[in-house]
Design goal:
Arc Repressor Mutant, subunit A, about 260 residues, 9 helices, 6-stranded antiparallel β-sheet, 2 domains, about 40% helix, two-stranded antiparallel ribbon, homodimer, alpha+beta, DNA-binding, Beta-Lactamase
Chain lengths: ~260, ~260
DNA sequence: ACACTTAGTATTGTATTATAATACAGTTTA
DNA sequence: TAAACTGTATTATAATACAATACTAAGTGT
């Protein structure tokens, strides 16, 4: 065994726990069922280590085991954790009733997202018409620069910060129409900065118009965004601006977390 | 230190990981922000142990730390885990578009739940009018006997099994109208067994009528349920039976997982 | 403003516990 | 029918998690 490059080798760091969590987190959108050897491959752990940790997680109920195939899957405990999170986030609690209301009014798909590193993560989703599965589940991460929510959150930062982020942050090509031109993205964000909301088109899904407005703390720092997806077949940017924007902006502004 | 009652003391069980998970899972609906000492109290771990594990989980990004109060909260990683779970569950993937459709048609609150030990857990929720926060988030657990979904899932088991469960499983008093009479519950379930759906009233929320239908595998074993909540002010059991039941039952029957 | 309690943090020597290696047993592939 | 691959079980070793304890900071009550 080569000496691992573990800098944080203080006595307050439990390496075993890290390995266990590595296994929990190896399951993902495209890795939803894994056998032991696959886990070994994906995590880089020793076979015997993987064996012990998987076994433990199975006994604790975090991984379901298919006795036929001997492969593992995330269990409902994964969902229970989401429940704990959602209760701990008072922004979610504040926003929930208003988003339900908004979803009712507009009869469109409504989301709330929070910034997470260079991404945004969807924390509330209320689909209102047939969309991709990915677009209907919470916990999804998308590069902030790709999403109207991410852009409108960024738009509340200093202009210097915005420029830096637009330059450095990752960007992913989702559709043929995904803007990969960082200049255009900067322009879009600066526009959002002026107007107080962000409009995008066909960035992540081919036939979708998106409207987003920022949620800010009392001090003015952006902590999330509400966003509405509209089918581009039946909507135009102009119509969205007239009919949807006011509702989104008003709802977002009404959400001001106590602290 | 007394010799712990750890039966499963085989070499394939990593006790450290268990302790770490114990900390992750101590956060819940009513424990959403905890300091170190509180964690010590709630988990029963040694102070120094809690210190190490909390520290590790914080460094790994699973716990957010408020530098002011030095208290910890579940991080967005908790949500990311839900995302992994949802992708791994093909029942969820199958059901999602149909539930969106159903939510559209009925304009009522639609849920999908799965059995989990003696509870059910909500895995999809689509609120359509103002409800309690608890009723709008996934991952929530409710005793199976309390919920129409739980009952309708049970109703597809053998009558012997039903009787046993109705006798033994836990029951929680949510409202003044929550049925604590196990005889009445049995009757309700047997009725559901005949009719193929379950109707309840004011069991968990004071002004709510619930309609549930089972989702079964090809072999006929119940693996989940769809359920609709109606405000009792505007609905009666009869109206629900006429207008909602057919839609719910049809949707539930249309969901048959491949294997 | 005072001691006083409670909270979080840092350090260390020890042995308990996680460890890697390896052997074994089923399954699928050629 | 062998070969290559899975998952499972066992063991001796030392590395790592451990509890104790001391320290510091922040509240609490008188």
């Amino acid at each position: 065994m080569k000496k691992t490059e573990n800098q944080r080798q203080d006595t307050l760091y439990v390496a075993s726990l890290e390995k266990g969590m590595r296994i929990l987190s190896v399951f993902s959108e495209d890795r939803s069922e894994l056998g032991l050897s696959e886990i070994v491959r994906e995590t880089g752990l020793e076979k015997s280590a993987a064996q012990r940790f998987v076994n433990t997680l199975h006994q604790l109920g975090y991984l379901d085991k298919n006795p036929e195939t001997r492969r593992y899957r995330p269990s409902l405990k994964y969902l229970e954790m989401a429940y704990s999170y959602l209760w701990s986030d008072n922004l979610v609690q504040l926003a929930m009733p208003r988003l339900i209301e908004l979803s009712n009014q507009t009869q469109q798909t409504i989301n709330m997202a929070k910034p997470l590193e260079t991404d945004i993560m969807y924390v509330i989703r209320m689909p209102n018409y047939r969309t991709s599965f990915a677009a209907s589940v919470i916990g999804r991460r998308v590069p902030a620069l790709n999403a109207s929510s991410g852009r409108v959150i960024l738009s509340r930062q200093s202009e210097a910060m915005i420029r830096a982020c637009v330059q450095d942050w990752p960007l992913k090509k989702y559709t043929g129409k995904t803007t990969m031109d960082r200049g255009a993205i900067l322009e879009n964000i600066l526009m959002a900065r002026e107007k107080g909301y962000c409009l995008t088109q066909k960035e992540i899904l081919p036939d979708e118009i998106n409207v987003a407005a920022p949620i800010c703390s009392i001090e003015g720092t952006p902590i999330g965004a509400i966003h509405c997806s509209l089918p581009a077949i039946r909507w135009t940017m102009e119509k969205a601006e007239q009919e949807i924007v006011p509702l989104i902006v008003e709802t977002a502004q009404a959400i001001v977390p106590s602290r």
